[in-house]
Amino acid sequence: MAELNELKTAQPESEISVRTFLKHVERPPKLIDLLADKLPPHILASLPHAIDFIGDIAVVEIAPELESYKEVIGEAILKAHKKVRTVLSKSGAVSGIYRLRTFEVISGEAKTETVHKEYGCVFHVDLAKAYFSPRLSYEHSRVASLVKEGETVVDMFAGVGAFSILIAKRYEKVHVYAIDVNPDAVEFLKKSVVVNRVEAKVKPFLGDARQIVNERLKEVADHVIMNLPEKAIEYVDVACEAIKPEGGIIHYYEFSNTLEPLEKAKRRLTNAVNRTNRRLKNILLTRIVRGVAPFTYQVAVDAEIQ
């Protein structure tokens, strides 16, 4: 206090103010900076611009011209991101009935299994055995936000349960039927159901969605989630069978490479519904979820069905 009084006497016209400064957070070094002296300058532009972080695994796509430097790139990613334990390189496209791709470990622990956290949920996943994309996290949350307390959801292609478990965690009184044809995905789904304590709300089914709906889940759903962009159009009739007689909402996804992807998706879904005994009352939303290749997009359509 004495020092403050002396300062006021010496500088009578001065003002004393209090400021709260933001704590400096050290940002991780950029990949290009870590590799600037390890790669030829002419190929630095080919470094991966996107890294998917799934639990403690980082997934990158290595351009052909960087193939001989992939281990160096992997080590740099480990250095830049301290929580990462494994770096995987995509070795092929998503393919097959289980929507899997192959990976190569380019740095760190030799594994493809991890535990991923998203919106307060915990997911057990093995990337080599079950499809999972962190790039759909917003979509998981968006669809979950549309469900209302007390409603019933049929997740026709549930995978490890990213939609199903989030919905069950958000609401006290929902019923979610999670279907997948991949036995590994269903095992991870069951494990995550227990970890997230939603056993009373999520019922996993192993099998083809058409058979499961026809035998067990006709006319039960307020919402049907159809996140199988490659083949969802082939299951629109099944989704319509799952919707309650008084109506409900289909959350439909497809890949589109046209100049008007949203319009194409709306037309295809409308035509598919018209071939059933149900009617498409209203298109509630269309949106481009993400780009998956040059001029190719994953598209979402929310449609109200009567």
Fill in the keyword field for this structure.
single chain, 306 residues, alpha/beta, GMP Synthetase, Chain A, domain 3, Rossmann fold, 2 domains, seven-stranded mixed β-sheet, four-stranded mixed β-sheet, 9 helices, globular
Structure description:
It is a single chain. The chain is of the alpha/beta class and 306 residues long. The chain folds into two domains: 31-111, GMP Synthetase, Chain A, domain 3, CATH 3.30.300; 131-305, Vaccinia Virus protein VP39 (Rossmann fold, 3-Layer(aba) Sandwich). Helices cover 28% and strands 27% of the residues. The chain has nine helices and 13 strands. Strands 9-8-7-10-11-13-12 form a seven-stranded mixed β-sheet, with helices on both faces. Strands 1-2-3-4 form a four-stranded mixed β-sheet. The chain has a two-stranded antiparallel sheet with strand order 5-6.
